[in-house]
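JOB MANIFEST
job_type = single_chain_structure
chain_count = 1
residues = 213
[input]
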Amino acid sequence: MGIAMIAYTDDNDRYPVGINREAGAAWIWPSLLRSYVGTGDNVDWMKCPSAPPEAQWNVTYGSGLPASDGYLADEVRLRPGGASFMSYGYNVWGGWAGKNPNTGLGVYKGDPIYGGAKASSVRVPTDMIAIGDSNWDLDQKGDRDWSGFIGMYAERQWPLEVHAKRANILFADGHVAGLPRTEMIAQLVKDPSEKRRVARRWNRDHEPHVTAN
């Protein structure tokens, strides 16, 4: 997944964007990454082994749509809701949803404010969260409808600690680390300097923006 993200970013000079609003709010970051893996419609690698079977992206056809955004011709697009959900989420908003300018990796395709982040805008790729285990667990206030995204701004988006009380996190430079929530969620940290350090990890300008909460 990390190799696919870096390859896409190198080719396009920007990170994948999360959603195409003109395609019915289709989630496109998974399909964009898939197009760089070369597995056709095989998406087994997009499911965390620790997640339940329902977390598997089930590729189906019958949309009548042309190939676009990494989706194959006639493929049904990923959207909120349905019987299946994602086990990995993408950092589209940054630390806080709705900030202008956006501080995440990009929410809406083509949007002048919330579009995909240029590679040069990510100041510290080694310390910016890109993709991680998403909160699909309803017992931990998860939201399966939006499990394709992670963030610090709402508990339902907090990365899920499914690996020995840690979440696997892919950073913007392509490396992976297992982190507890206290290393990702500023609201769980009391010390002011540590709170800022943790909050920076979500934002491409590497600023904490903690005054919003």
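[summary]
The beta strands are 19-20, 26-27, 88-90, 129-133, 167-171, 176-179.
Helices lie at 2-12, 29-34, 192-200.
exit_status = 0
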